[in-house]
Design a protein that fits this description.
With 313 residues, the protein is of the alpha/beta class. The chain is 37% helix and 14% strand. The protein binds phosphoric acid mono(formamide)ester (CP).
Length: 313
Amino acid sequence: MPKRDLISIEDLSRAHVELLLDTAESFLPVLERDIKKVPTLRGRTIISLFWEPSTRTSSSFDLAAKRLSADTLGLKAKGSAVEKGETLKDTAITLSAYSPDIIVMRHPSAGACQTLSQNTEASVINAGDGTHQHPTQCLLDLFSLRQNLGRDLGGLRVFIIGDILHSRVARSDIMGFQMLGMEVTLVAPPTLMPRGIEEMGVKVEYDLANLKDADVIYLLRIQQERVEAGANYLPSLREYSELYGISQARLRPGQRVMHPGPINRGVEIASDIADDDENLIAHQVFSGLAVRMAILYRTIVGYSDGVASEEVL
Ligand code: CP
């Protein structure tokens, strides 16, 4: 099987992204059946390494692999030989002895997936590496938008609000949203806005004065583990919430709210939005399963075939 890494959203062309989204759509009927399993990847081996905490990404990759009948093996840093000082290179060499088809990895360091890829014949899928990229989150976000707002996302105006500086989701989403023709505005306090980010073709704002212009409001988690680490990014979470937190009072009718999770209730998102059925947050989680099934499938079979539902069902 040729090696097909997915490390950055830049690894994909627009045609690849659209094929992945179409493939994910073709898996939806499987997820509605009583028996939610197909033999598509029977005999394939998928290893997941989560060296950083995760609920959504780890559970959806695991379930996606199982829905496709692949053999799965999941490791976390705690309890693995990482605790004894084993390097990523040696972990890659060790696990490659099992001839896995795919290794999915989340890691606290940007660039770790590239290191992994250089030391294994398996295809590597980035499940989030430091502040670098989270391409599968971007793909599920695009899928959720397409399912809820229509297939043509061109011209849609998205405001990404929050801790842009530390956000791998923002980096992937900016690229993916623009690839499908969306207009991206970033909003953050100056301390959480990366310098020179305008070069990515986004608008940059430091308050919510123009929030009414947004069709979609994409909130990012204030990464308290980084913000509270003594770097003085914010005077206080309360002040952040007052200036940038989104509650119903700040929305106009028709605006849809997204968040990759986990959320900080009362910081970037008020409970009256977090608990509102109109937000897309639960749909994003649901989309994660179908999209990650599509990613695993396309990583194995390639991107050259068209999508026919009987192909995967
Ligand atoms: N959105 C996201 O990556 O969530 P997890 O950290 O729970 O995987």
